[in-house]
Design a protein that fits this description.
With about 425 residues, the protein is mostly beta strands. It is built from two helices and 29 strands. A hairpin with a 4-residue loop joins strand 10 and strand 11.
């Protein structure tokens, strides 16, 4: 063998050895051990890996492509054909419909009629094959509906009763309840990557509560504030005293702050399952909460009345619906917008204003990821927002549209709300 060939052979051996060493040093993410009955997590670095445009379940192939819009003050659901942007149906449901919620098995869309201040709350099932409603089932105070990660229970968020009711997901027969007395206005939630706990927002207490789903207990309640790193502010807020509100974007350490509790709304977990993002319509932004330690670690200013949170289909972006007002009820034409947050950096990449004003609230992303559909809460319209350009189409619906859902959606199972699929 010539000298050149010997050198080449030695180099090849060295390269092969280096490649083997590098492969040995590659650290693969630990598999997620989920609660019994919960489907596995295919990608521990991205729990949204199964909601991509190519992940629509074959079981949904005959479901009608529709947008279902609950109109809270009309007691109706408006049905929109997303291909033509035309209203194709409107039907009556129970009193004060709040959200349209895909079931865990993706075969029923439940309309949550919570009948505010009354005792005749109900759930109306919609068949996604026909788009038609079935007979309503009486249920106490169903402001929102979620599903346990295993699919064993429907979790009825009884907001006025400060309670979570765990029911049979088909018949809605009550199994057990978890009382949440320190969580006034309990409403929106998201679940840990392993399904062992969930965070629910406490709208009227400016806080978020952590629920142990395995042991059926409340782990704790955390007050949220943009001044999360100021112990004096947290101590002030913990007193429940009413203080003047002063919105500050920056302040010297030790300076005086007169803060009020916020009004947390929607919740969404990060792709790696480590942090939770919580929209706050009084703080005008999104709180960042570490799930394991249950501590607030950051705050992202977005826009007036931050409300709904929706991940992009690739799990890289978080769309924030800024309702354009800090009020629970307001007139049309408020300065509503949608902010786009980068999950990895926690930075706002862009903000799209609603032309001529509006009140974007709740909704979801189309199956192909090209559009974000949101209700215009105080404008009696629905917005279809292009996720590339931010261009907006408007469709007239009933009075005070709220938690609409887009159907079908990609994913293996639904954790509830307007389509929290995984």
């Amino acid at each position: 063998m010539t000298r050149v060939r010997l050198i080449a052979a030695a180099f090849a051996v060295a390269v092969a050895g280096a490649a083997s060493w590098c492969a040995a040093q590659t650290v693969l993410p630990e598999p997620i051990v989920t609660v019994p009955g919960m489907p596995p997590v295919p990608d521990p670095t991205n729990l949204y890996s199964e909601i991509g445009p190519d992940r629509v379940s074959p079981a949904l192939k005959n479901d009608l492509p529709r947008v279902y819009v609950p109109n809270r003050r009309s007691n109706t659901v408006t049905v929109i054909d997303p291909a033509t942007l035309q209203v194709v149906d409107t039907f009556k449901v129970g009193r004060n419909p709040q959200h349209v919620v895909p079931s865990w098995d993706l075969r029923t869309l439940w309309v949550a009629n919570n009948a505010e201040g009354r005792t005749d709350g109900s759930l109306t099932p919609i068949d996604p094959l026909t788009g038609k409603p079935g007979p309503a089932i009486p249920v106490d105070d169903p402001y929102n509906v979620y599903f346990s990660p295993s699919g064993k229970h429907a979790i009825i968020v009884a907001e006025e009763l400060k309670r979570l009711d765990f029911r049979d997901p088909q018949t809605m027969k009550l199994d057990y309840s978890i009382a949440t007395p320190k969580c006034g206005g309990i409403n929106h939630a998201d679940f840990s990557i392993d399904g062992s706990f969930a965070l629910f927002t406490c709208e009227f207490d400016g806080a978020v509560t952590k629920i142990d789903l395995v042991n059926r207990t409340v782990i704790g309640t955390l007050i949220l504030t943009p001044f999360y790193d100021r112990p004096d502010v947290l101590a002030q807020l913990a007193t429940f005293e009413k203080k003047p509100a002063l919105v500050l974007h920056s302040i010297e350490l030790g300076g005086a702050i007169y803060a009020r509790r916020g009004m947390p709304q929607d919740v969404r977990i990060s792709p790696d399952g480590k942090t939770f993002f919580v929209a706050d319509m009084l703080a005008n932004g999104v709180h960042v909460v570490d799930g394991a330690s249950f501590r607030e670690t950051g705050f992202i200013w977005t826009g007036i009345g931050a409300h709904g949170l929706y991940p992009s289909r690739d799990g890289k972006l978080l769309y924030v619906a800024n309702r354009g007002t800090n009020k629970m009820m307001d007139r049309p034409g408020r300065p509503g917008s949608v902010s786009v947050i980068d999950f990895a950096t926690h930075k706002v990449l862009k903000t799209w204003p609603i032309p001529e004003g509006g009140s974007p609230d709740m909704g979801n992303v189309s199956a192909d990821g090209k559009y974000l559909w949101l209700s215009g809460r105080f404008d009696d319209v629905v917005y279809r927002i292009d996720t590339t350009s931010g261009a907006v189409d408007k469709i007239k619906v009933g009075r005070e549209p709220h938690g609409l859902t887009v159907w079908p959606q990609p994913g293996r199972y639904s954790l509830g709300h307007t389509g929290n699929l995984r």
